[in-house]
Amino acid sequence: MTEWDVKKLRILRTLRDHGTVTATAEALLMTPSAVSQQLTNLARQLGVELLEPQGRRVRLTDAAHLVLRHAEAVFAQLERADAELTGYLRGEAGEVRVGAFSTAVPALVVPAVRLLRAEERPGPDVRVREAEAAQAYELLTAGEVDLALSLAAHAPTARDPRFSLFPLLADPLDVALPAAHPLADAPALRLADLAADRWIFGGSGPWSEITTAACEAAGFVPEQAHSAAGWTAILALVEAGMGIALVPRMASREQRREGVVMRVLEADQPRRHVVAAVRHGAESGPAVARVLGALTRIAKSFS
Question: What is the pTM of this model?
C-alpha cells in the first residue's frame, strides 16, 4: 500500500498555495533545502513525480494535483477528528481564535462573546486577532486562527476544499452627510443624487474598491476629495463639511457624531457581504460551532 505522510502532504499543499520553495519554507519556518528534501521523499514514497522545473522555479505535476485533491479530504477529516477530540477532552469551553476585520470586532465579535458569557453553560475562550479582510484566509490556512470574519469579495470560491464558508449578513452602506448638506433632509435619497459631491475614502484597499464600485453602479465616478481609511478620521472630515462618505451600518452603529447625518439610501442602496470561514471540517467542533451560532444570531440584528 502507498505510504501517505500527512506532514509532507501539508508541505506540498503549502507549495501549491505559495508558488515557490522559498515562500513555502518561510511560511513553514523551514529551510528551502529541507522543503525540497521532504518533497523528494514524498515523491519516492508515492512513486510519482510531484514537481517539474519551470525556468528557475518548479511547478506541480498533474500527479501532484491528483494527490492534493485526495489529501484535502484527509485534512478535513483530521480537522473533524481534532475538533471532536477537543470537545471530548475540554467540553465546549475550548479556545477559539477569531480573526476579524476592524469593524467586525465591535459590531459582531464582542456582542457574540457577551452572548456566550450570558449563557448558563461555560462558553469557549474567544481570542481575537484584528486582521485585514484579505488577510483572514492566510491566517486560517496557516492555522493561526480557527475562525475568520471577512468580506465575500475576498473569500475563496465555495468549491475551495480548504474552507467552509458561512454567509452572515449583507451589511447596508449608508451615506454620511454633514448636517448642513442641502440633501441632509431630502426624502427618498439615492446614491445617484450625490454624483456631484466630493467623496472621502481610502486611496487603496477594499473600502476604496467598494466605494468606487457602488458609485459606478449608480452611474458616476466619485471625485475623491480626501483619502482616509479609519472611520474616526472619515467621519471627522464629513462633520467638518469637507466631503461625504459611504459608511457600513456596522461601523456607523459604533461611530456617531452630532454634526453628521446618516442617511439610508433608497433604490440604489449598496451592500457589502460579510462571511465567516473555518478550515473545512472544523465546523463540527463544539466550541467553533457555538461561536458561529452566536455570530449568526448577532448578525441577524442588522437585517
Answer: 0.67
pLDDT tens-place string over residues 67-109: 888 888 888 888 877 776 766 555 556 789 999 988 899 999 9
Based on the fold, state whether residues 60 and 135 are members of the same structural domain: no
Q: Whole domain around residue 143: which residue ranges?
A: 91-169+273-300
Q: Are residues 175 and 164 in the same domain?
A: no
CA-based torsion, 187, 190, 192, 198: positive or negative: positive
**Spatial contact of 175 and 265, defined as CB atoms under 8 Å apart:** yes
Q: What is the sign of the dihedral through the CA atoms of 152, 153, 154 and 156?
A: positive
H-helix segments, the chain: 6-18, 21-28, 32-46, 62-90, 104, 110-118, 136-141, 206-217, 231-239, 249-252, 286-299
Q: How many CA atoms lie within 13 A of 285 on its CB side?
A: 30
Whether 282 maps to a domain, the answer reads yes
Cα dihedral 281, 282, 284, 289, rounded to 10, equals -140
In angstroms, rounded to a whole number, what is the distance separating the alpha carbons of residues 66 and 43? Answer: 13
Number of separate domains in the chain: 3
Per-residue pLDDT reduced to its tens digit, 44-68: 888 889 888 887 788 899 988 988 8
- In this structure, is residue 86 part of a structural domain? no
> Of 71, 102, 126, which residue sits at a domain end?
71
Residues 64 and 189 reside in one and the same domain: no
Q: Residue 90: which of 280, 277, 288 has the closest Cα?
A: 288
Assess if residue 251 is contained within a domain.
yes
